[in-house]
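REVIEWER CHECKLIST
Item 1: Sequence provided? yes
Item 2: Single chain? yes
Item 3: Sequence as submitted:
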Amino acid sequence: MTLLDKDGVRLTVDDATTVATVTLANPAKRNAQSPALWRALTEAGRLLPGTVRLVVLRGEGKSFSAGLDRQAFTPEGFDGEPSFLDLARGSDADLDATIEEYQEAFTWWRRNDLISIAAVQGHAIGAGFQLALACDLRICADDAQFAMRETSLGLVPDLTGTHPLVGLVGYARALEICATGRLVQADEAERTGLANLVVPAAELDGAVHDLAAALLAAPRDAVIETKALLRGAVERTYEEQRVAERAAQARRLRDLAGVRD
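Item 4: Structure as written out by the authors:
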C-alpha cells in the first residue's frame, strides 16, 4: 500500500503494516536532495501507521543519494523555494528556523518505537551520508561509498549526521572523514562500524529482508525498551544505566505478569 509518493519520496507499507519502506525515487538525479524532498521525508514519518515496527530506507537506481542538489546554490534555487543564497541574507532567527525544519527529515528515524535500516548502494554523499547515518542500522552493497563533502563547499554537516558519526567511528576518524571529504569505501565502513554488514550488490535486498525478519522476531515492547536503554547509555553514567536497566526490566516483568501500576 502506498501512503505517499511525491517530491522524490515514496512511502509504502506491507499488508500487515509492520514494515514500511521509504524510497528515494529520483534515480535520474542519483536521488539528489532538496528542501521539497526533506519535507516529504518529514511527512513520511508522520504518516507511518502506529503498527509499523521497522522502516527500510532505500534509493532507486545506482546511488543511494548523491547529496544535496547543487541547484540549491544557484541564484534562482528551486521553483517556489528561496535559494540558499537568499536564506543567507535573512535574519539569524529565520536561518536557524529553516535549518531546523530541514533537520526534521533526519530525526524521526531513531524513534524508540521503530527500528530503521538504510539499504545503501553506490554513492551516499553529504546529505546522503547523513540520511544513512540518521537510521539505526546500515546494510551496504559492496559498491557503497560514503563521503561528507560539506567542508569542500565551505559548509559544515548540519543535517544531524555529526552526532551518530562520532558515536560510530570516534572523534578523530570523524574529523578526518569530514575535514578531508574523502570517500569511505564499503570495506572500511564495515571495519569501522559505519556499516553493520556489507554484501554483494545483488544480495542487498535479501540481506535487508533477513535482518528485518530477525528484528521482528522479538516482542515489540522488549525491543522498544532495549532501544531506549541503548540510546540513553551514552549520556548516563554506569550507575545510572544500572538504574535504568532495573526500571525497564521491572516494567517488562509487570507487563508479562499482567500487573498494572
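Item 5: Key structural point noted by reviewer: Strands lie at 2-6, 9-13, 19-24, 54-59, 115-120, 123-125, 137-141, 145-147, 184-185, 197-199.
Item 6: Recommendation: ____
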